[in-house]
Automatic annotation (TrEMBL):
InterPro entries referenced in this protein's UniProt entry, alphabetically: Restrct_endonuc_typeI_TRD, Restrct_endonuc_typeI_TRD_sf, Type-I_RS_S_subunit
Alphabetized Pfam families for the sequence: Methylase_S
Span of domain Type I restriction modification DNA specificity: 80-198, 268-410
Protein name according to UniProt: Restriction endonuclease subunit S
Similarity field: Belongs to the type-I restriction system S methylase family.
Root EC class: hydrolase
Entry GO MF terms: DNA binding; endonuclease activity; hydrolase activity
Alphabetized UniProt keyword annotations: DNA-binding, Endonuclease, Hydrolase, Nuclease, Restriction system
UniProt EC number: 3.1.21.-
Amino acid sequence: MTVIKEIVYPYLTSTGIYDLPHDWLVTDIDSVITNIQSGFASGERDPNGVVQMRMNNITSDGQLNFEELLKVPKPPDLAEYDIKKDDILFNNTNSLDLIGKTAIARDDLEYTFSNHITRIRVDKNKVIPYWLYLILLRYRERSVFKSICNTHVGQSGIGKHELKRLRIWLPSIPEQQKITLILSKVDDLIQKTDEIIEQTQRLKKGLMQRLLTKGIGHQEFKPIKFLFGKKFEMPMEWNVAKLINLCKEKPQYGAAVAAVKYDPSLPRYIRITDITNEGSLNSEAVSITEEDANGYLMSEGEILFARTGATVGKTYLYNKEDGLCAFAGYLIKFTPDETKLDAKFLFHYTHSDNYWRWLLSNFTQGVQPNVNAEQYSHLPLLMPPIEEQRKIADILDTITAKVKQELNHKSQLELLKKGLMQKLLTGQIRVKV
């Protein structure tokens, strides 16, 4: 039987108690590092400068995001802020929910890092860099950094002193190597899945731009003026129409009643916050009473538009697999006439660049941006014949399903990683060395 010992962390809540194998060392971060360095502040931009990694370049799931990179003037002590392979980057300043995001550099990077990031370099004779990275991910998952950070107005921070004092646990180097090898393989699969998702989304965006403006197999085009008087060409068989002229009935605002706790025997109550950017429903379901839902239940082919706030413009096409649904007051329902407008075609159109350009020009500015039913009714659409609409929607449905499949696969891998981390990082499951 494996002998275990209890470890209690002085900074943690009562949930921060682990039973560890007797042969694992308990120490602090300071004893296993060779360097800990905060980055430099820069409010300036310089296209000829150096890339500076910032807090938005570290994702919540522990990856580096290179999509939005800023260049700043080179600091005089540039060499102090380099990023080498196996450097751990710790987000030391952020909101309370995001404090402590952590990533590891898989290669040398010709970048620097801001004062909101702390770079950690370890003594590889004492700890595998990836091991410490995983421990820091585990700490954030268990809200450790929330409990030790200093909180100011809208921001929380963790200094180098607090970070160095954080207690960690270490099996032997060979055991660390075996454990990190297992978990890094799962990480590699997650990264490859992310790449597939990104490639598929790029393909989808290109297809949407082509299909929603040029259609399928057309050879002859006619010039028109579309959004903002911009000259444009569309297929000869197409026309331009307003959304309201393609619907069976007038748009409808949702119910202005309070939600009740989710009950599968009651209709689901769709609120503006329940709709994801992709147009699906998230998992935070609530219900509405049958009496309150009367007159607001959704049917197949109906689509909701978000009308206010940061989520304005998002849409949801009713899916019968979501069960019985009613919709709330900050949403507007449109019911396309299926002989003129395919609902799936409309849904895909609301994810196009043309739609969002139109939307940005039609906000009613105030405390929050707002687009009302009258404004949405005048949404201009490039209209293929109904049969071509359906073919276009089917093509885009196929590629959307591929993205969804890969997102589900990524979620399963993340659950696998989480379970393995729980058991391998605490010695509940031992590996042979």
